[in-house]
Specification:
Elements: E1 27-32, H1 37-40, H2 58-76, E2 82-84, H3 85-92, H4 96-109, H5 119-123, H6 127-136, E3 158-161, E4 164-167, H7 176-188, E5 199-200, E6 213-217, E7 220-225, H8 231-244, E8 249-254, E9 268-272, E10 275-278, H9 280-283, E11 291-296, E12 303-308, H10 311-319, E13 324-327, H11 333-341, E14 348-351, E15 354-358, H12 362-370, E16 374-377, H13 378-384, E17 396-400, E18 417-421
Parallel strand pairs: 1-2, 4-5, 7-8, 10-13, 15-17, 16-17
Antiparallel strand pairs: 1-18, 3-4, 6-7, 8-11, 9-10, 11-12, 14-15
Length: about 425
């Protein structure tokens, strides 16, 4: 099968969609970032500062990512299904106002870099030059800016809930520019013009990354209070969702503040409306205060809460339906730990009961098979549907060749920012 090519969309007058009411509704549109030059700028000396445990081989990482995007495009089956955030940023930079906003906000969040001294020089960069600087930190100016290798994990830059979008507040300086890129795209790209009144900004001083937010149904949101999303971020999100969206219930899951469980979706994802892939040692262990259910009341700016110990029981109660928890790594404790480490619980749902994950997590895929999923490779899936359209029907788990991508410590859900489902 030939190497797939990037699936990007040009600026167009038709607006992009914003509509997420479930983790598993059929995918309609998604933002990704295929690894590029920024990955090749990670070195043994700066990798930890840039939150990378290892150095990725760019060529293979790109091939794996592009194969994943080709699966998305086939399953969605319409133009402009897969959008590249780098392309969206470059298109936004066609407007002088967008370039000025980016530079102004960059100076505000990079106080230690003394960028104010170079504002005039940055303003004179062409759209292409500023775009390269935004993604890689590379410029002919005497500046010391880091690349953004974590931009491949577009899930974390924002989160769509209903018809609103929350812009992230990264917990680390290494990712601060990613949130700014999301802001510029959402505020200045013409495709998002109809949605600008539905962008939610969080206050300074709190942190939130999109991997900590899941949408089980149109009334309910799950949020992880994790290493990357602070309690202040959680409470501000709850207030904003209750004030501006149709959300009535927010379940907050307390996670260990450790890199291994940096986001909720590293230990818990939906594969169908009533099935979840979970990391049992954490998710299936009851603990006091593990889950808090916040519910909107009839009084403005007030909500009730109840504390629970069992996520499954509380989530079933709120959703009004039974759930099946599928163990990442199967029943073997060692396999569970090994495969959670390589994102075995980080499946991305493309339709109800149709998911994609890393093929290296073989015990997890075997567990999916036992729960009625047909297991296929990404290349086999594309070959089978080469001459026909895909129509959801049977349950299916697609194995992605993620040997290189998995070394970045993020799975298919981490690498996707869905804009619209349904």
């Amino acid at each position: 099968m030939p190497t797939p090519t990037p699936t990007t969309a040009p600026v167009r007058s038709r607006p992009y969609d914003l509509r997420i009411q479930s983790e598993t509704d059929p995918l309609r549109q998604v933002i990704v970032h295929t690894p590029g030059e920024e990955i090749s700028l990670v070195s043994p000396e700066n990798r930890l500062e840039l939150l990378f445990d290892d150095i990725l081989y760019l060529d293979n990482a790109r091939k794996e990512h592009l194969l994943m995007c080709q699966v998305f495009a086939k399953i969605v089956g319409r133009d402009h299904a897969v959008l590249e955030i780098g392309t969206l940023l470059r298109e936004a930079f066609e407007q002088e106002e967008a370039r000025h906003d980016f530079i102004d906000q960059l100076c505000r969040i990079s106080t230690q870099a003394n960028l104010q001294a170079f504002v005039g020089d940055l303003e004179r960069l062409s759209p292409d030059e500023l775009h390269r600087f935004a993604l890689t930190g590379q410029t002919d100016l005497p500046l010391n800016a880091q690349p953004l290798p974590n931009l491949m994990f577009t899930r974390d830059v924002a989160a769509v809930v209903g018809e609103h979008v929350l812009i992230s507040h990264p917990a680390t300086a290494a990712r601060a520019r990613e949130s700014l890129i999301a802001r510029v795209v959402l505020h200045h790209h013409p495709g998002f013009a109809p949605h600008r009144e539905r962008i939610i900004h969080l206050p300074r001083g709190v942190t939130f990354e999109g991997g900590d937010l899941l949408v089980p149904d149109a009334r309910t949101v799950l949020i992880g209070n994790s290493e990357r999303t602070s309690l202040g971020g959680v409470m501000n999100i709850i207030s904003a969702l209750f004030a501006h969206t149709a959300i009535e219930n927010v379940l907050v899951v307390d996670l260990p503040k450790e890199r291994s469980y940096m986001h909720l979706d590293t230990v818990f994802t939906f594969s169908s409306p009533d099935e979840c892939v979970v990391f049992p040692p954490l998710i299936e262990t009851s603990a006091p205060g593990r889950v808090i259910h916040y519910r909107q009341t009839d009084e403005p700016d007030r909500f009730s809460c109840r504390i629970g110990t069992d996520l499954k029981a509380m989530l079933e109660d709120v959703l009004g339906r039974p759930l099946q928890f599928i163990p990442c790594g199967g029943d073997d404790p060692l396999s569970q730990r090994r495969e959670q480490w390589t994102d075995g619980a980080n499946f991305f749902a493309l339709a109800p009961g149709v998911v994609i994950g890393y093929e290296r997590n073989s015990s997890t895929f075997e567990e999916m098979r036992r729960h009625g999923y047909r297991i296929v490779s990404a290349r086999g899936f594309l070959s089978y549907y080469e001459e026909s359209e895909f129509a959801p029907g049977e349950k299916m788990a697609i194995k992605l060749e993620g040997t290189e991508l998995s070394r970045g410590r993020g799975g298919p859900r981490c690498m996707t920012l869905p804009l619209a489902r349904g």
